[in-house]
Amino acid sequence: MLQPQNWSVPAMMPPGWMATPADGFVPPVDVLESNNDLIYIFAIPGARPENVRVEVRQQALEIEGNASLPDGGQYVYRYQEWPAGRFYRFLPLSPEIDAEKAAASFNQGLLTVRFPKTARGRQIAINVQAPASQQGPGNPEGNQPGSPGRTPLI
């Protein structure tokens, strides 16, 4: 898992959308982590892939673009929670990701940006084995005669 001292995600915003200083909106984001990837998922209803810019610079993820509301046709909006117009988000990235291998996709209003972790950022289990001289016939675990079996430290 990524260590908090190496990077940070700014405080998550309250549900819904918040206005930005430039009369736009800030899309909410979920950040998911696996042993191999770090994934950012932005909710941007009304946006189209060709109207979204995704860029990594100076160890930060920047997204911006434009989203439009569905045409109400013969109807007039009486209440609206989906934002429209310009959106922008800038988030710091972990130094343990490989930005060169990032991939972005857009599907049904969700922008997903996936970063593979570098080897430095992956959790790797290492098996602990007894020296070969302690292993032998009748002692497959490698225990000293008269000593209890191996006990995990944690």
Automatic annotation (TrEMBL):
Residue intervals of the SHSP domain: 20-133
Name the domain of life this protein comes from.
Bacteria
InterPro entries associated with the record:
A-crystallin/Hsp20_dom, HSP20-like_chaperone, Small_HSP
Under the heading Gene3D superfamilies, the entry gives: 2.60.40.790
Q: Which CDD domains match?
A: ACD_sHsps-like
The similarity annotation says: Belongs to the small heat shock protein (HSP20) family.
- Entry protein name: 18 kDa heat shock protein
- Provide the species name: Neomoorella stamsii
Q: What is the lineage of its organism?
A: Bacteria, Bacillati, Bacillota, Clostridia, Neomoorellales
